[in-house]
């Protein structure tokens, strides 16, 4: 599915992510020492998916200047749906692995639960400080016995991006503080704002892009989503998921959406032609909106706080035990995910730091986005990130989320199916995917 393929990349990569990706088909390269870099140099290989940002932000070059004895080589596979199965195969066989591998957040639970013995405990690596990271991000890659096998790179704290010009025409406030107050504390208030917008909406516009996007945002604001504390799948009976489904379905049935599927050409066009007034937007989506809305959208878009703190996206770095340069790789992974480097990555690529210690650094704390009316994005997204609950992640989160959105809610939003029919279709697809 197009959305699934792009989403897995977008959620990890930040602004500008759809450009400069490598061609599919490459595999993570095995590590080597002293190859291609002169006598005595250690080559550390890094395997990632898409335009991950570390190389593009110049962090590898900076590290090599600080450590002349080290050479860093990166291999990228464009789509995570191709990258991740290869990673699992290589971890199982203990061969074909890079010294450092990237893992997308929707895959980290499976890696942590099933591959921890194949990975270095980075919680004990030189230069790593647990208290520098958000608690909920640290816990996502920590095993039940306390081994931390992945270091967080970025996260996806959410706001609500909105069109000031469309809000004004509909008689709604345009100041971002006042806009945030419209729905502060409750996603149902976001729904009520949509009803007010519809009552005076400019011709040819809708309040929100898609019901699926609303559902994803609401689901991301809950501690328990698809799995319970015991590792069992609970989405069918979890009140939080039911509330997210019902609320999003109301957006669809009350015709408050533009009936678009996210990460498709028609959705992209919706940004440029002003088809909708709001969209749930993680920090990494700002660059996407700027790209798709173009120069004509500058100054029209702004960003306000979401009804409740919510997260969508993020990634990790792991170090396989089978690597030939485990110690040096762990040092590099620690440096790349340190607050100072995460702040640089945010400044260069829009990837929001998972290290809370970065939030007080000027590159984050003082960050504003000129395209979005100089919105204080550092402050807005830092506050959101610190409010996200410690979420329970499961090995098949992505499968469940994709089918709820692309099979279930999409039928309600685009095909006029009832919420009950959409839910039944999603559950059937998920059961088939999970062989239940």
Radius of gyration: 21 Å
Q: How confident overall, as mean pLDDT?
A: 90
Number of strands: 10
Distance from N terminus to C terminus (CA atoms, Å) equals 21 Å
List keywords for this structure.
disordered N terminus, 436 residues, 10-stranded mixed beta sheet, 2 domains
How would you characterize the overall build of this protein?
With 436 residues, this protein is of the alpha/beta class. The protein has two domains: 2-155 and 313-374, D-Maltodextrin-Binding Protein, domain 2, CATH 3.40.190.10; 157-311 and 391-433, D-Maltodextrin-Binding Protein, domain 2 (3-Layer(aba) Sandwich). The protein contains 18 helices and ten strands. Strands 1, 2, 3, 4, 5, 6, 7, 8, 9 and 10 form a ten-stranded mixed sheet that branches. α9 packs antiparallel against α17 (397-415).
What would you say about this model in short?
With 436 residues, this protein is an alpha/beta fold.
How does the SSE layout of this entry go?
Elements: H1 2-13, E1 32-33, E2 42-49, H2 59-66, E3 70-77, H3 80-93, E4 100-104, H4 105-114, H5 135-140, E5 151-163, H6 164-169, H7 176-183, H8 187-199, E6 206-208, H9 211-219, H10 239-253, H11 265-272, E7 276-282, H12 285-293, E8 301-305, E9 311-318, H13 326-336, H14 339-349, E10 352-353, H15 362-365, H16 377-387, H17 397-415, H18 419-433
Helix pairs in contact: 9-10, 9-17, 10-17, 17-18
């Amino acid at each position: 599915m197009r959305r699934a393929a792009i989403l897995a990349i977008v959620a990890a990569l930040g602004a500008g992510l759809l450009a400069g990706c490598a061609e599919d088909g490459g595999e993570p390269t095995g590590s080597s020492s002293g190859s291609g870099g002169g006598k005595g140099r250690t080559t550390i290989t890094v395997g990632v998916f898409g335009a991950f940002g570390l190389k593009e932000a110049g962090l590898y070059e900076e590290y090599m200047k600080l450590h002349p004895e080290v050479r860093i080589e990166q291999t990228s596979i464009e789509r995570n749906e191709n990258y991740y199965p290869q990673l699992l195969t290589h971890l199982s066989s203990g061969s074909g692995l890079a010294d450092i591998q990237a893992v997308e957040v929707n895959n980290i639970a499976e890696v942590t639960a099933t591959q921890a013995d194949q990975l270095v405990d980075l919680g004990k690596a030189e230069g790593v400080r647990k208290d520098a990271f958000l608690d909920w991000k640290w816990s996502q890659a920590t095993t039940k016995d306390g081994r931390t096998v992945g270091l967080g790179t970025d996260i996806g704290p959410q706001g609500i991006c909105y069109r000031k010009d469309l809000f004004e025409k509909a008689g709604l406030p345009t100041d971002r503080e006042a806009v945030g107050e419209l729905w502060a504390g409750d996603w149902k208030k976001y729904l009520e704002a949509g009803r007010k917008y519809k009552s005076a909406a400019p011709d040819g516009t809708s309040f929100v892009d898609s019901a699926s996007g609303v559902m994803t945002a609401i689901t991301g604001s809950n501690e328990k989503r698809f799995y319970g504390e015991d590792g069992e799948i609970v989405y069918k009976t979890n009140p939080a998921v039911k509330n997210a489904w019902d609320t999003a379905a109301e957006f669809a049935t009350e015709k408050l959406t533009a009936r678009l599927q996210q990460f498709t050409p028609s959705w992209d066009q919706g940004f440029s032609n002003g088809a909708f007034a709001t969209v749930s937007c993680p920090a990494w989506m700002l660059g996407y909106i700027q790209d798709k809305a173009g120069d004509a959208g500058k100054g029209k878009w702004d960003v306000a706080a979401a009804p409740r703190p919510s997260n969508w996206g993020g990634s990790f770095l792991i170090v396989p035990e089978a690597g030939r340069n485990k110690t040096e790789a762990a040092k590099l992974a620690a440096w790349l995910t340190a607050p100072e480097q995460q702040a640089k990555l945010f400044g260069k690529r829009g990837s929001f730091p998972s290290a809370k210690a970065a939030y007080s650094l000027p590159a984050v704390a003082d960050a504003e986005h000129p395209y979005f009316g100089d919105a204080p994005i550092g402050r807005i997204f830092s506050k959101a990130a610190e409010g996200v609950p410690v979420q329970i992640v499961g090995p098949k989160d992505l499968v469940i989320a994709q089918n709820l959105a692309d099979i279930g809610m999409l039928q309600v939003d685009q095909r006029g199916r009832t919420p009950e029919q959409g839910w039944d279709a999603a559950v059937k697809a998920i059961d088939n995917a999970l062989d239940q």
